[in-house]
Design a protein that fits this description.
- By secondary structure, the chain is an all-alpha fold.
- It has helices at 17-24, 28-55, 58-74, 78-93, 100-128.
- The protein has five helices and no strands.
- Helix 3 (58-74) packs antiparallel against helix 4 (78-93).
- The two termini are 19 Å apart.
- This is HPt domain-containing protein.
- The modification Phosphohistidine is found at residue 66.
- It comes from Nemorincola caseinilytica.
Length: 129
């Protein structure tokens, strides 16, 4: 396996660089594309999910939780992806809607920290090249 983003030995809390390397077969150009796309889309998706939860829009809550779940699984953020999956499930079943805010607010904080890690990783990759 190529170590395209493992060379610095830096450990991240919210993203899994080994997973990203495996997913991309160490293709640095593809890794940069994936990370850049995530950095560019996460803020808007998180804001839209926040709005959906605050306004009680279960359809949008389900949609953006599903989208964010996939985004975090893709970058190796399994714990965050699992939490978004829970929000998606709760917004689908209807009976658990009242539980979403208790999950979401800490999750939002952690998702923003993951976004910061992605930016840091991109910067590290840029300075390494």
């Amino acid at each position: 396996m190529s170590t395209a983003i493992m060379g610095s030995g830096k450990q991240y809390i919210y993203i899994d660089t080994e997973h990203i390397n495996e997913l991309t077969d160490g293709d640095t150009e593809l890794i940069v594309q994936i990370l850049t796309a995530a950095v560019n889309t996460l803020p808007d998706d998180l804001q839209k999910l926040t709005t959906a939860i605050n306004t009680g829009n279960t359809e949008h809550t389900r949609f953006y939780a599903h989208k964010l779940k996939g985004s975090f699984y893709f970058i190796g953020g399994r714990r965050l992806g699992d939490a978004f999956a829970t929000i998606e499930r709760y917004s689908t079943d209807g009976a658990s809607l009242h539980l979403i805010p208790a999950i979401f607010w800490p999750l939002l904080r952690d998702a923003r920290k993951a976004q910061d890690e992605l930016k840091e990783l991109l910067k590290d990759m840029d300075t390494a090249s």
